[in-house]
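ingest -> validate -> predict -> emit
validate: passed (alphabet ok, no gaps, 83 aa)
predict: started
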Amino acid sequence: MTNLARTPKQIGAVIQRTRKGHGWSQSELAERAGLRQATISDIERGESPAKIDTLLSVLGALDLEFRIGARSKWSQQEVEDLA
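emit:
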């Protein structure tokens, strides 16, 4: 499954949805990523900026990868509907 995220809130939503799909608490994901539970909470809320290495640790713990590609022509509402 491919998830499209263009904002910190959308990235957080993908991370939260995937974490819950694994049946993990924020604490369990934090332990697997070598981070604090509060950091996972911040990322999932998308309210404060996260360092790229922190995001990569979380994505790795969830067996997700970060990809960069040309921006699709979807409207902002269509992208928000994905989150």
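The radius of gyration is 13 Å.
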